[in-house]
Amino acid sequence: MNGNLSKLTSFHVTGIKPALEAEDAGERSFRPALFAGYGDLTKLRYDYPVVLVESAAGSKFAQSLSDIVDGILREIAPQGAAGERLRKHVLKLEEELRGLVSQKNGASLLDLWDAAEKSLLTRTEKAARDLLRDSLGRARNALHVDGEVLDCDEATPTRFITRGWNVVQAAKIHAVKKRIEHLVLKLSDILRADYMKTEEARSAEIFRASVGTAYDEAFDFSAMSGILAKERAGDLLPDSRRQRVQAALTILQAQRFHAPLHDFEQTVVRQPLYDFVFDSCAAALEAFRGRLPEMVEVIKAMSIAELEIQNLYRESRHEPFFERFDEGALGPDDLALFPSYLICLRGERIDPAEAGRIFELLNSDLPAKILVQTDDLLRNLSLSAGQTSSVGGLELGTMALGLNKAFVLQATNASLYKQREQIVNGLRRDGPALFSVFSGAMPRVAGVTPYLLAGAAEESRAFPVFAYDPAASPDWALRFRIDDNPQAEADWPVHRMMYEDRDFQGTSETVAFTFVDFALCDGRHGADRVPVARSDWHDDMIPVVEHLDLAEGHAPDKIPYVLMVDENDRLQRVVVDDKLIRAARRCGAMWHSLQELGGINNSHARQLLDREREVWEQEKGEQLAKLAKRAEPAGVASPAAAAPPPAAPVETTIEVEEAAAEAPSDEPYIETPRCTTCNECTELNSKLFAYDENMQAYIADPDAGPYRQLVEAAESCQVSIIHPGKPRNPNEPNLDELLERAAPFN
Amino acid sequence: MGIPVSECLLKLMAEGYTLDDYRGDIPPRWCTGCGDNGILAAVQRLCRDEQLPPERTVFVSGIGCSSRFPHYMNAYGFHGLHGRALPVAEGIKLRRPDLHVFVSTGDGDCCSIGAAHWIHAIRYNMDMTVLLHDNQIYGLTKKQASPTSPRGVKSNTTPRGTYLDPLNPLSVTLGVANVSFVAQAADWIPELLYDIISEAYHHKGFSFVRILQRCPEFMPHQFDPWVQNPDKMLLLTHEKGVQLSAGLSKVYRKQEAHDPGDLHRAREIASLSEQIPVGILYRDSDVPCYEDVRMVDRLHTPDVIKGVLEEEFDKFTIWPSE
Ligand SMILES: Cc1ncc(C[n+]2csc(CCOP(=O)(O)OP(=O)(O)O)c2C)c(N)n1
Ligand code: SF4
Ligand SMILES: [Mg+2]
Questions:
Q1: What is the pLDDT of residues B131-161, one digit of tens each?
Q2: How far is A601 from chain B (nearest CA, A)?
Q3: What residue spans of A55-151 are helical by DSSP H?
Q4: CATH number of B8-297: 3.40.50.720, 3.40.50.11260, 1.10.3720.10, 3.40.50.970?
């Protein structure tokens, strides 16, 4: 072992930096080797900038600039060579626009678009300008959206989620608002109809006012009033009902939860509407609790209004119910009628009390939508042994899974746009939701954009992406998703890296991106790494990913390194200390459990599969053995049974079997279900024949008329369903003849 | 969205209407033996069984014996103009989609003077239950031939008998775009009449039920061959249509299992001549209803109404100074 190598070994184990011979590493800036390809992001087309589109519904609230431009090109540029010029010009504009966004984050798309167009045109030579102007003009005409343009930075998660919340909120509450306005209108109608019956409403003054001054002289309003006053107008509402309707109306009009959809006659003064965006759980909870009594009043008023409008309110039954109706009676369906509470938090500032409240909310039915933004993901790495760390966004995400109740989305700035549907999903759910987002805007990381760092956090499993939606299904398989992570099946994602060697020959190598690569982006971990001069490269140095594959403490003589590039994009091996390796192992273990939850390499499933395979192989073996024993040629299955059945005839007339004739009864009777309500029999004798509760005839009293009437009714019944039976009075005249006439009906 | 509290309260409320609650103030003035009596009874039964609040139910009609229907129901009613029952019903449904709308119309009312409205009402497919009381004659005006009168019927307008084959209301309806529910019933099979009207009521869309209705006064014995010989009737049964009770199955032995989704077969059944089919010929629940398509997201608040009226009046206002 040469001198430097042993120094490196001791550095890896102890973390004490060696003074290396030959090359002075100094405090130089290194980036993970895989970053070398991503210098200036404004030259790349990716998810940012994102436009928060005005008046868009659902997940359309955010659209990436590239998607918008692609849409425009699809619309205006023909496929193939014919559209080439338009495509080139418009993509140039997109690039220009990207450059502007990084300077004017938050400006509107139309403003930026126009500015980009202008600067592009001024920079273009005169000869080419007209064509460019033409292309850009067409694109501008095809641009149908506008909205705030977001670049990827520290402010992005809050702005993105807040906009999503606003859009979902507006759509979700729209139906409720409509309902409330409908109730207000109908309640007003009830009061108005009642008013119209009063003497005041029929007074000469009211009539005069309704006609207006132009025809003041043309009518005799007192006479009109006199005539109408005489006409009975019907009863006025009882006082208690009028007061109840009025009270419900007042509550619905004065409530501060929903903005009115239309401005129409407000008879009550409304206080300013409630705010639903908070920056602490404590404040949100306090507001929620303070508003509870009013929420109860609104729900009560809505229910009373519903009943009153349908004329179903019964004081004796409903009064006691509504008197007892209080906060305890509010269920999730009631809560869903109110806006949800958006709480935006910073992971680094969550104290233990606030963490407790987060869990309290996530474990409740309350409509709390909590955004926890993490900027410094590696904060806990710099703690020394014995120090405890507070709970941040990363821990909250996985811990919330255990509550089994709240919607949880963990994502980074790099995947927010891809996760917009999930975001809308979580915002739409009635219950609580947690959005844990890593911004990538890490303090003390220079030279790497937040987007790249956020992406690196996903790649390195430092901040995996997952979504948990307990309402989606009773099974974990459909509730939990981790498939949006890069190479979700793998421990660490691997990439092919192309580079030139010392002789400028292009070569490539497969490189894994691990937690260590991510951690080394952070300047604070300069102490944990040592770049190694090529002259010191040695067989005992192995890539970190191989080191991580070895069981812990298994290869004390191997020194783990990662590939990094320096300021000049020169590839370096960088040896890291054991502290980082341990952190990477923890991160890998956490990733494995997420994989298992997400159904990848699930240990239960694997065990089950192994057992099943064993059983299957055993059975298969036995069958084979049996077959071999018989050693006879196996018979071929007969194909006869496989012939398709003949096509069914279109018309199938069913001949129902003749039922055994029932013995004729001596009692008169009617086949009531077949009665056509024709009134023939009931008009003959309404005591003998009557209608049942379905308006169909039956023999109400066989002694209420003579046998003759039974026979006549049987004869006049057009559907022949009256059966006269035998005469009850043997002394009735002409019985012989009547019996003969009755025979066909018995 | 639901307002759970009042929903449970509404259930708690069930007042319980009886058939009497649907009877109008005056007793029916139809002839003894008139099929309209049975249709009325079936509809009153339906209202009771569905517990339709009378104040949320409307019966609309045109002119004719059958069009007297609304008078005999205790509910809202509109005894309209000859042939114009459907436009009135459409107006009601458009403005008050919360009401249950029923239409009673005669063969003269619907297929003669009101034919244009009929065709378009099918196409509009608004949610209402339409009963065509088809006695194949103008009853109220004392016997004139109607479009559905069989060829050769002598009447006050056709003393030598009609010259043309009758119009078939079932085939016509089945031929119009957006048709969504077509059935045929006979007043002399009340059990099925009830079941069919009930299916029609439950169908969302324009449910058209042609009811063969006996008029003993002006078309006596017209349906006798079918009334007296159940084997001349063809009962359409299906799990998606109506099913027969054991008693009925015993009397009416000719049955066909007909899937109401089969438009082609429905058209064939509609044109049977000897047998009278009874049951549900066609049903498509996916046809959109005009009132839903045209639903405006605007409440008719007093201000809105006032604004619209002012706007209209302004178009005709003459300003003396100008
Ligand atoms: C515009 C107009 N034309 C003609 C009449 C006369 N009229 C009244 S009822 C009727 C026919 C009714 O026949 P139908 O609709 O079959 O009803 P039914 O009486 O048979 O039930 C006619 C033509 C009228 N009332 N109004
Ligand atoms: S004339 Fe005919 S349709 Fe009119 S009531 Fe009499 S039987 Fe019924
Ligand atoms: Mg008629």
A1: 999 999 999 999 999 999 999 999 999 999 9
A2: 41
A3: 65-76, 84-103, 109-123, 126-141
A4: 3.40.50.970
Q: Which residue in the block uniquely carries the two structure tokens 């069984």?
A: B49
Mean pLDDT confidence for A267-273: 77
What is the pTM (predicted TM-score) of this model?
Answer: 0.69
Residues 6 or more apart whose CB falls under 8 angstroms from that of B226 comprise B186, B232, B233, B276
The token pair at B163 is 């010259």
C-alpha A351 chain-centroid distance? 29
Which tokens sit at A24?
């002075």
Kindly state if the Cβ of B30 falls inside 6 Å of ligand 2.
yes
Q: What interface predicted TM-score (ipTM) does this complex get? A: 0.83
Task: Tell the residue nearest (CA) to atom 6 of ligand 1.
Answer: B141
A19's tokens: 């003074």
Contacts of residues B76-85 at CB distance under 8 Å and 24 or more positions apart, as own/partner, are B82/B108, B82/B109, B82/B113, B82/B114, B83/B109, B83/B110, B83/B112, B83/B113, B83/B114, B83/B115, B83/B117, B84/B114, B84/B117, B85/B60, B85/B61, B85/B109, B85/B110, B85/B114, B85/B117
Residue A26 has pLDDT above 50, yes or no: no
Interface check for B127 against chain A (CB to CB < 8 A): the answer is no
Residue that has been written with the tokens 């809560």 in this structure? A335
For the domain with range A654-746, which CATH number is right: 3.50.50.60, 1.20.1560.10, 3.10.180.10, 3.30.70.20?
3.30.70.20
**Do the chains contact at A718 and B214, CB–CB below 8 Å?**
yes
User: Cα A650 to chain center, whole Å?
Assistant: 47
Give the pLDDT mean for A331-354: 90
DSSP letters for B233-274 = EEEEE-TTS----HHHHHH--EEEE--TT-HHHHHHHHT-SS
Q: What is the DSSP string of B189-209?
A: -HHHHHHHHHHHHHSSSEEEE
